[in-house]
Amino acid sequence: MSKLHPFLGMARDTSLEPAPGAPAKAKTARPLPHALTEATPEPVRARAKPAARPVAKRDAFALPEFDVAALAERLPRKRRQRRSIGLWTSFFLMVALPTLAAGLYYGLIVSNQYLSEFRFAVRSQDFAPAGASAASTALGAAARAGGYTDNFLVVDYLTSRQAVEDLSKTLDLRAMFDRPGVDILSRLSGDDTMENLVSYWQSMIDASFDLATGLALVRVRAFTPDDAYTIAATLVKQSEKLINEISARARIDAVRFAESDVSRAEQRLRDARGALRQFRDTEQTPDAARTAGGTLDLAMKLRGELAGLQSQLSSLRTYMDPNAPTVKVLESRIAATAKQITAIEREIGKGNREVANREVGGREVQAPAAQAGTAGAATAAAPATGSTMPGAAPVLSDVLSNYEDVDLSRQFAEKYYDTTLSALELARSEAAAQQTYVATYVQPARAQASLYPQRLMTTLIIFLAAGALWFVSVMVFFSIRDHVA
Q1: Predicted model pTM
Q2: Helix, strand, or coil (residue 323)
Q3: DSSP count for the chain of H helices, then E strands
Q4: Residue 362 backbone phi and psi in degrees, to 5
Q5: What is the mean pLDDT of each run of 10 residues along the chain (485 residues)?
Q6: Could you tell me if 462 and 99 are in contact, meaning their C-beta atoms sit under 8 angstroms apart?
Q7: Are the C-beta atoms of residues 164 and 200 closer than 8 Å to each other?
Q8: What is the CB neighbour count within 10 angstroms for residue 307?
Q9: Which residue among 58, 369, 391, 446 sits deepest, i.e. has the most Cβ atoms within 10 Å of its Cβ?
């Protein structure tokens, strides 16, 4: 204490005090300000130099007679007491009181909750039907890999509003969660809305899915063992119904899509066959390809006959007169055959008069009269061979080209129709083979003891949380106080 304040307990120095009976020392006159000296005509007095103060030596002072240590201990003790009272008061209000209230509530008031759980996995079985391709097998493998999606779907459904609505159709959830005798903090309270019921339902169910094992766990809590078991068993049935509906919908959609393809292919085939029938009616030929083949065979046959007649005519001209009847008849036959060949080639689309003239070799010029005499015979012979005069009917090559287009469309329509029929049968087979179901390997059971609430654990958690909050508050308070000070 003497180090902090060395002048405490300092002994009075009697040497500096005047002796008793001695005359008092006159005080030194204080000099007047400069402004007053200018105003008065009196002479300025000299300022007296102040006397030097005596220098005190610390070592020369004696220790005080009273206990300095006791004084030092007495001064901060009041602050310590105030600080201790404040800390204990805050600890009681923020930690002890909440923990005591939680202990009383969880130990004496809270209602017991019973647990019923079940575990399941969504499985898919695909049997490859006869005639299944590699693509369909790969699609089936992808569908099996999508089983995780089905598991997530079921887990999410169990905590959704749809599950609550489905449960409400068969069970009275409000009566189960608002039974008489249940404490007010645990029971279903608030307004009678579906949102309130769904929020409370999500606090009473725990559904989780393990990605590593592919298994799902569902836990349901209620205030009686029978209620917990009834709710869990109903959830199992609803999960199976949900998966069956989704699987059936997928199968129905696949078959429906295949059937729509078959319907479009059938309509396309009908249109193609209708176009072919209309073409046959218009061109008056059942098969243009066969007609064209017959016409070509006839042209080749006539060419052979023309070559024989020309050879025979050449041999007769060597020893007979050009005006002989036999030669004239042979020339007429050659002219008629040449005209017939020309008409057929024109009908096919390749023939013309120059070609016919080249075939005759200029022999028509030598027998114009014979040609004129046999023109009617040639004209009458042309219809006999099935050919028509130029301009009376379309060219056979154009008819054949149109026929090939129509027939090609018909063939494509038939192949597409066969393909869609095969796809429809395959879709039906796969729909019958694919089976997605909920495999519940742990069935719900009635609880024999209450597992919730966990009284000791919950009270300990409240104590630790309140203690952490109190500690942080105290640290913040002291840091602010030190900063302000």
Answers
A1: 0.54
A2: coil
A3: 17, 4
A4: 85, 5
A5: 43 46 48 45 51 54 56 54 77 92 89 92 66 46 57 91 92 89 85 89 92 90 93 93 85 86 90 84 71 74 83 80 80 84 70 45 39 34 38 62 81 90 85 78 90 88 94 90 79
A6: yes
A7: no
A8: 12
A9: 446
